[in-house]
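Q: Please design a sequence for this.
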């Protein structure tokens, strides 16, 4: 049975729902770009992307005498403002550049979210990161962590088997799940266990402990080195045949008692990995497991028996039908995001926003300015601040809590409610204050003078200038609610917001319309009530962004 396609109206409400789930926030610019396009075309465009990201750069420095920051005092082989992933680190010369490169990587990743293109690449990359994660500061090899990030971007909408095969010998994953220390005679089960339990099949799906032990033998022999000819080199994955278990590997009845023949070459050993990944995806449990994960990320956590039968089962069948396709995930997502179920009332406004959806979404929806690449030191400084406020709200980019990912996507029964628990609510309030009140500023001690003491704040006049008729307070408040709220609110609530913040207790719309028009025509006006227009807007948005409806999408 195929997943039922959506045949209802595809208007602004439906487009906004789709874009909120596939982008970080849904700005007026996003809506304007896609308005008038049919559903299939919108989803096709969202899935039409390449990995055209540029690498992270050295925007960091170290404090010298008198507290003066100097990029020449750290990571000296990398010129200030240049990419570092392909430059060998100098060893034995303090300070160690690894922490700075790790921070640069995480800030760069955050910048890719802030400046996302109008497509699914960054949200899909974050999906796979949550699903098959590393922790950058545990891997502690930034060049390999960068390669891991790019692997996810390269393959995020493609064939899942190919992604898993590549991931199994990825340097960052080898370090994170002990694969670099997995050798014949002393096999380490960590990666083989997580591959089945967390990445592809799920606990209790039917594989055995003996399957875990056997899988560990398949992955032996791969390690990481930072030497070449006895000299420092870029971190690289190496295979040592003497460390590989060359015996045959017998699996349980769950895998139809399959045998993977032991091999004695690097090509053969990689072929063993390929055979085992193929075995995993020959089981119906694997397709169901992956499709449930996609559902929880893009649709919601309500996996009722009806959803299992009417959505997950046909989606999993499509996943299996496209097992050899290089566009496997794109095809599956095209079906999910154009389905009747995806646009049903039950799954609109039903999810609590992650810290990334909240923070990046607000920044994009409010057109918050950030430094451009010509101010690269300021740019990375601001990205660092954005990353830190998301860290505080329990979504640290590059630093998931553990190999299971963020609890919102697996921890029963609260799931996404964990984003607003007692430990994160205060942090989410701080996110609102940072974006709405304080903005982002760059410090005095930056190296480049033109990058210092810059201010980046929301311009509320510019925000409402996107609306159809911002001089009409009824339309302004309605469109602000459409922009910010994940669910509709009553007319009485909108009326209260209008009177309290735009009319300041008056009853006639004239009091807003006149003041707004005066201010927009002359921002330097001395008219005492017109001068209050920016503050009125700020107060309105502050109130609205504190509402529970603003936490949903």
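A: Design:
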């Amino acid at each position: 049975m195929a997943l039922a396609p959506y045949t209802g109206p595809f208007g602004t409400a439906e487009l906004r729902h789709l874009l909120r789930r596939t982008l970080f926030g849904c700005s007026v610019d996003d809506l304007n770009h896609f308005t008038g396009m049919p559903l299939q075309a919108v989803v096709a465009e969202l899935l039409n992307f390449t990995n055209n990201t540029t690498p992270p750069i050295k925007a960091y420095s170290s404090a010298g005498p008198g507290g003066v920051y100097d990029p020449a005092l750290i990571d000296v082989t990398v010129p200030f403002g240049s990419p570092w992933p392909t430059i060998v680190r100098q060893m034995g010369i303090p300070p160690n550049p690894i922490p700075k490169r790790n921070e640069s990587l995480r800030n760069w990743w955050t910048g890719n979210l802030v400046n996302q293109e109008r497509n699914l690449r960054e949200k899909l990359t974050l999906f796979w990161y949550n699903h098959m994660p590393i922790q950058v500061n545990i891997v502690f090899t930034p060049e390999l962590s960068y390669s891991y990030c790019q692997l996810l971007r390269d393959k995020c909408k493609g064939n899942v088997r190919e992604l898993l095969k590549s991931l199994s010998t990825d340097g960052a994953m080898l370090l994170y799940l002990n694969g670099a220390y997995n050798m014949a005679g002393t096999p380490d089960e960590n990666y083989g266990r997580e591959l089945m339990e967390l990445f592809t099949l799920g606990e209790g799906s039917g594989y055995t402990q003996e399957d875990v032990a056997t899988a560990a033998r398949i992955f032996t022999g791969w390690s990481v080195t930072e030497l070449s000819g006895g000299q420092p080199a870029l971190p690289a994955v190496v295979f040592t045949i003497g460390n590989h278990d060359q015996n045959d590997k017998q699996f349980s009845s769950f895998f139809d008692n399959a045998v993977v023949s032991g091999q004695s070459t690097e090509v053969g050993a990689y072929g063993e990995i390929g055979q085992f990944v193929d075995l995993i995806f020959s089981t119906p449990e694997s397709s169901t497991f992956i499709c449930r994960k996609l559902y929880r990320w893009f649709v919601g956590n309500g996996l009722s028996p009806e959803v299992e039968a009417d959505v997950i089962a046909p989606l999993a069948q499509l996943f299996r039908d496209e097992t050899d396709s290089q566009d496997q995930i794109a095809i599956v997502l095209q079906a999910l995001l154009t389905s009747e179920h995806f646009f049903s009332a039950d799954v609109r406004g039903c999810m609590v926003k992650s810290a990334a959806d909240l923070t990046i979404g607000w920044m994009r929806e409010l057109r918050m300015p950030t430094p451009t690449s010509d101010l690269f030191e300021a740019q990375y400084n601001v990205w660092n601040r954005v990353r830190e406020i998301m860290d505080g709200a329990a979504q640290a980019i590059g630093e998931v809590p553990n190999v299971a990912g963020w609890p919102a996507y697996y921890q029963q029964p609260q799931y996404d409610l964990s984003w607003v628990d007692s430990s994160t609510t205060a942090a989410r309030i701080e996110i609102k204050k940072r974006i709405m009140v304080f903005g982002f500023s760059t410090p005095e001690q930056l190296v480049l003078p033109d990058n210092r003491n810059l201010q980046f704040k929301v311009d509320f006049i510019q925000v409402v200038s996107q609306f159809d008729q911002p001089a009409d307070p009824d339309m302004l408040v309605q469109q602000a609610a459409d922009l910010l709220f994940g669910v509709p609110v009553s007319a009485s609530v909108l009326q209260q917001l209008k009177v309290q913040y735009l009319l300041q207790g008056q009853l006639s719309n004239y009091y807003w319309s006149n003041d707004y028009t005066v201010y927009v025509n002359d921002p330097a006006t001395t008219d005492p009530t017109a001068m209050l227009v920016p503050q009125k807007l700020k107060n309105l948005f502050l109130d609205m962004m504190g509402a529970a409806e603003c936490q949903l999408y």
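Q: Thanks. Anything notable?
A: Residues 355-456 form one domain. The first strand starts at residue 62 and ends at 63.
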